[in-house]
Amino acid sequence: MTHLIAPSVLAADFSNLQKDFDMVNASGADWFHVDIMDGRFVPNISFGMSIVKTMKKMAKKPLDVHLMIVEPEKYIGQFREAGADVITVHYEACPHLHRTVQQIKATGAKAGVALNPHTPVQLLEDLIEDIDLALLMSVNPGFGGQKFIYQTLPKVRKLKQMIVERNSRTLIEIDGGVGLQNAEKLLQAGANVLVAGSSVFKADDPAGVIAKLKKIGEQGVYV
Ligand code: DX5
Ligand code: ZN
Prior knowledge:
binds zinc ion
């Protein structure tokens, strides 16, 4: 399978979202990555379901909704109704993660679990076959434009090994500080989905960066 590119709309121009959505719609990108921050799980607030609903109208590709919020189980239904196709919750925010994953699946959305940089991937061992996606944070969640944490690479390799051993189809998504400088290494390590915020939207040629990210590893298919 070829890898997927998910531009993170947190870095888009909120005074003209339509323009940035049109660019992504016309590009080779696969998903829109949508960051929800509550000012509690992370020290920043982004936006809520009404904006997601607006984004859904503009998007011609699936919405990959990343919930950086406490008690996500309270809002899963609303985000699904707003248009989320993939819903990812944080391991660190869910005391009853198995139940929360089942709750996401019951809405018909794909279920993801995200791990903060300090959270070991081994903690996913008893859940890996139940989830569609495992998101590894490669920066501390809360802000776009941060520096990639290189310790993520061995985590990707470990997680990939676990997935292969279990014969599972879980996708590995990497989020934070991803761009042309590290995409190839991530794909070689086993990543399937690359989230890219600043490296796409702050570039002079955003569509060109998406095209390049999509092309990496084309010959050597890493995943
Ligand atoms: C960080 C968010 C990321 C962020 C990525 O908390 O989860 O999705 O938008 O932005 P960049 O690619 O700029 O690091
Ligand atoms: Zn994110």
